[in-house]
Write a structure and sequence with these properties.
The chain is of the alpha/beta class. The protein has helices at 2-22, 60-63, 68-77, 106-116, 126-131, 133-141, 161-179, 195-202, 223-231, 253-268, 276-280, and strands at residues 82-83, 92-100, 121-124, 145-148, 185-186, 207-209, 213-214, 238-243, 272-273. Strands 2, 3, 4, 7, 8 and 9 form a 6-stranded parallel sheet that branches. Strands 1-6-5 form a 3-stranded parallel sheet. Helix 4 (106-116) packs parallel to helix 10 and helix 9 crosses helix 10 (253-268).
Length: 286
């Protein structure tokens, strides 16, 4: 009986290792216990309580699971179009933030970036930009780069082609009014994308940006957990994913609290922070 249990356990472990290897997991996960989640000390704007603020596809927690292996494969298939990491010969890293803007977390992120004299790339949701135009204008004025993260944050692989293109073009129009340019950078909500949609998005003259270091801050992690997930996995050419806003159930206080230490630590280690256009030598506007 014991021998059977041992063989069964080893088989399960072996299958898990095989699955993890094939999906190229690059992160060491840390506990996500509810009692470790940071307290939320400030209140959101009333605008963040409306339907206009909601993510069309639902929370990251309900939609994540797109395999890292698929992202690597797409990067190999479309090397001039789909980007996930920069040169491994230069100690540079790019901070990127998804799902903003808002009135709660995004301004705090911007305060820290300004204090540390670091420029980042923000992938913004069109309808949220309409709700908080001054935050978008602040990003531009402070030298950050703005990218397209669709109008309402749907899972685009669940949309037909016409609906997907409308999501992207509506966001492009909204963002261009606030930034003064039509962005040439696109990031798919949840990272979910496939070959067919990449080919369609290419027709809109976009570069598609993924990542290779995920903070997992959408899990409402503590600052220590966010720092661990980033600092233990950063390497030359890393594209780091954090969020400057999220769904209503996501608490990003820990991500905000971690940002300064992440920047200070990586600077001490000799990293230079660059924007996505600088990392890949690609245009940020059409």
């Amino acid at each position: 009986m014991k021998k059977t249990l041992l063989i069964g356990s080893l088989l399960v472990i072996g299958l898990f290792v095989f699955w993890a290897y094939n999906n190229e997991y690059e992160l060491r996960f840390v506990p996500n216990k509810p009692e470790l989640r940071p307290p939320q000390n400030t209140s959101p704007s009333p605008k963040e309580m409306t339907e206009d603020f909601e993510l069309a596809g639902g929370s990251e927690r309900d939609n994540r699971g797109f395999p890292q292996r698929k992202i690597v494969d797409l990067s190999s298939m479309f090397p001039e179009l789909f980007f996930r990491e920069g040169s491994k010969n230069v100690k540079r890293a790019a901070l990127t933030f998804d799902d903003g803007p808002d009135s709660l977390y995004t301004p705090q992120m911007l305060d820290i970036l300004k204090e540390q004299n670091v420029k980042a790339t923000f992938f913004l949701i069109g309808k949220r930009a309409d709700l908080f135009p001054d935050v978008v204008k602040r990003m531009v004025n402070e030298g950050h780069i703005v990218g397209n993260h669709t109008w309402s944050h749907p899972n685009i692989v669940k949309l037909d082609n016409a609906a997907m293109l409308k999501e992207i073009l509506d966001a492009e129009e909204a963002l261009s009014k606030l930034t003064g340019y039509r962005t040439a950078l696109f990031r798919s909500p949840y990272g979910s994308i496939d070959e067919k949609r990449i080919k369609e998005i290419r027709k809109l003259n976009y570069k598609i940006i993924a990542w290779n270091v995920d903070s997992l801050d959408w899990k409402s992690l503590t600052a220590e957990q966010v720092k661990y997930n980033i600092l233990e996995n950063v390497k030359e050419g890393s594209v780091i994913l954090q969020h400057s806003s999220g769904s209503k159930e996501e608490n990003l206080t820990g991500s905000v609290a971690a940002l300064r230490d992440i920047i200070v630590t990586l600077k001490k280690e000799g990293y230079q922070f660059v924007t996505i256009p600088e990392m890949f030598n690609i245009p940020y506007k059409k």
